[in-house]
């Protein structure tokens, strides 16, 4: 196998499409968002490319006994009253620093091939605490993009994210800019501890405003409710544990 | 030395052979099975290829003072009343993610060269606890293979193995499928803590049914008995230790 | 993206320039020094090269919402009454051993392109304790350079730095020498625990003597004062903690 | 810099030379032995090759202020009444698995260039305890070599070293054999915890018998005496600590 093998699964004509990337990352916000988008627009979606690479883990996933080699996938989506989309998803990031550059370059090549000049990288930004109001923080490749994104509800902050943006999302901004793409990274706030469907919804709602598609959030909300239950149980356990901690008096007794 | 050097040790004509891979992994199930197969069919086996690679650890093994460079080996086996075999064994997996792709590609090249179109990757699947009944769990490259394997006693489960299959076994499925091979991975259940000859036997028995060879299990059973002794001693020590743990009363006394 | 991409941002004619490197390292001494130099000589500085590489982390930094791809930068500085400078800065070192060789080779290529034959690598040498007098320790590519540097106040010690010099600074000496450059590494003593503007000043003062430029230290001194406050608070906390440690008597009481 | 750069420092005609390798490893036995050999035969030695590589750490060592880039060195030694030698030394091994293959290949190329067909890799084999009698354990590339080495006092054991031989010493055996060299690895027993000049002497004495040179051991014995002092102090400290451990009675008193 070569370092990179791209399977052209289907050819689809798209009109000025936008590439939307949702690979795994903080709180799985980006991948949840991209997968939900594809589920809701399933009737309009076609798998067009599979990207295999030695930069991915040497692994197959297995479902009902049938194995599938690790890859990233790009779907073409013809949105009825909105912009056409190329949606990039997958179960893995590259395994090395170098690999992120290799894969992002491949993704940009495919975006170019389909005539895309705009990119949206979806992800999460960790806050370290549980969240009530889900802000969407942004970063862009060109200053000129700030205003229209702010109008759509994206927040730009002086020094955030403090550590920069790493992986494919970061490089879609960095390498994308060098190749003439207009890229925005939309990062939903998330605790960073748990898979976060609410943060994914916040990101998708911004994207709806920007790109003119409309999706239902019922299944995503159901997953959010399931996560709420998990969080509730964790908090209960924590309270219980605090009550079980021996006090000074207990300790004296043992001594 | 090049990244990959393949020594053609001998040439053997095989009739529609099946490649059987047994490299080290969980519970050494795959390598135990492949080595037992070669020992039992020694009279019919010929070493045909040695695969050296910079992806292997930079190491020689030493036996009676004579050093041998780390490599993988492929034996041709002409089974009297069964399918011809190519058996792949060795002491090491590749040392990097990338290396698994490189080595698996080399193994597939050799399988192709000998006219093999079917592959069996042998291994173990960890259960985390000691086992009485050794089920053999399967994964296949093509859905059409499920039925005949189920008839041979292989179990296919909805979400197992949960983490997928990594290393050469996984890539024989994934890369093999991309090159037109029919691959099955047969994974014997095993605790994951110990070398497990019983699990290797369970895997071999399935393979016997599928490929029509017959082997004796005496030496494998002897190794299983030795492992039982080891397990027995570990359990005894654990019980002893539990008895030695000071009780609350003991602690009070010290205080 | 290729392993290395060099953007020629501007062309500037320099007269026998000296390359001054200040990438991140111990106590951030080198990068503080290089950045201060550029701030103080801003009117005379021109960004001439940006160096992008797959050896850098796959990352963008974000400021006020606008992303910038990780790179190293080289500025041309025409110093009024001193030697012309090429100042090399950046936020990151290479991420692999191999990468340090790749990047240093690129930096030497650019130095050569601008006609530089002398290099100064700036950095810190860790002492493991807080420092009052900031000595500047040196290392050179050619014995003939020792005397003039000693005259400028640089100290050369028998076995220091004991572990040698790693990263780009080390390779500017080692690879530079192989390509005919005269290189000196100037290392300010620093505790190694904190960002150290005082050590950066000590290094710059030596460089002033050697190269004939003159800079103001007000902003660097302000940063040093801020660090003093931080150190003060840490020491206070440590003392407080020591007072809180239970004495033998306390422990007896608990028992 | 290329992945590998070999400087031809001098050309020397040798008569059927033997390459002796002593790079750092267990107990520094190999490097101590090679360095002692070069010191004692200094009058007959000429540095002929320096090997630089991106596989070495990106580092310079510094002595009296002058930096030297990490490399390996090969000396030609014309021994008056013995076999001519090529002695390979250096301060570092390769930093990656792959790098060991790259460097060993380079060393074999140079051995070939000087007409060597026999190689001796010197090293230590860890025993895990302090040693009185320093046996020298061997491994060879060809069974035919066993007898003459046994006559010279080398011990060959059934399963030793148990974990095989890694790094350049191992690959001189493994890759050397593939290229037609006769290689022996001579490993002095050593605790594995400390630099061990006595083990280095044991290895050199075997080599003297085999190759017909004669060296004085005074300086090596002095270093051994220094190490004895270190060991003595460690043992003293350990005994002291044992005496300081509180007994059960002490503990009861505190409670």
UniProtKB/TrEMBL annotation, chains A, B, C, D:
It comes from the Archaea. SUPFAM superfamilies: Cgl1923-like. InterPro entries: MJ1210-like, Proteasome_assmbl_chaperone_2, PSMG2_sf. It holds the Pfam family PAC2. This is Proteasome assembly chaperone family protein. One of its GO terms (cellular component) is proteasome complex. The lineage of its organism: Archaea, Methanobacteriati, Methanobacteriota, Stenosarchaea group, Halobacteria. Coiled coil: none annotated. Keywords: Proteasome. PANTHER family: 3-ISOPROPYLMALATE DEHYDRATASE, 3-ISOPROPYLMALATE DEHYDRATASE-RELATED.
């Amino acid at each position: 196998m070569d370092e990179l093998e791209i399977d052209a699964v289907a050819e689809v004509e798209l009109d000025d499409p936008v590439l939307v990337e949702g690979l795994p990352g903080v709180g799985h916000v980006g991948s949840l968002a991209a997968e939900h988008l594809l589920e809701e627009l399933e009737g309009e979606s076609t798998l067009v490319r599979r990207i295999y690479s030695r930069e991915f883990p040497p692994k197959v996933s297995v479902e009902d006994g049938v194995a599938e080699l690790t890859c990233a996938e790009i779907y073409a989506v013809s949105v009825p009253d909105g912009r056409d989309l190329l949606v990039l998803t997958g179960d893995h990031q590259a395994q090395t620093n170098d690999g992120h550059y290799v894969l992002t370059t491949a993704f940009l090549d495919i975006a170019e091939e389909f005539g895309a000049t705009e990119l949206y990288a979806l992800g999460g930004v960790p806050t370290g605490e549980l969240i009530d109001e889900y802000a969407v923080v942004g970063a862009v490749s060109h200053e000129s993009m700030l205003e229209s994104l702010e109008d759509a509800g994206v927040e730009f902050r002086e020094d955030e994210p403090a550590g920069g943006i790493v992986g494919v999302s970061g490089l879609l901004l960095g390498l994308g800019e060098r190749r003439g793409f207009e890229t925005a990274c939309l990062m939903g706030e998330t605790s960073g501890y748990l898979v976060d469907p609410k943060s994914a919804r916040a990101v998708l709602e911004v994207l709806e405003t920007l790109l003119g598609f409309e999706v239902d959030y019922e299944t995503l909300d159901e997953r959010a409710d399931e996560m709420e239950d998990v969080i509730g149980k964790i908090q209960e356990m924590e309270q219980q544990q605090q009550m079980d901690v021996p006090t000074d008096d207990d300790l004296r007794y043992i001594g």
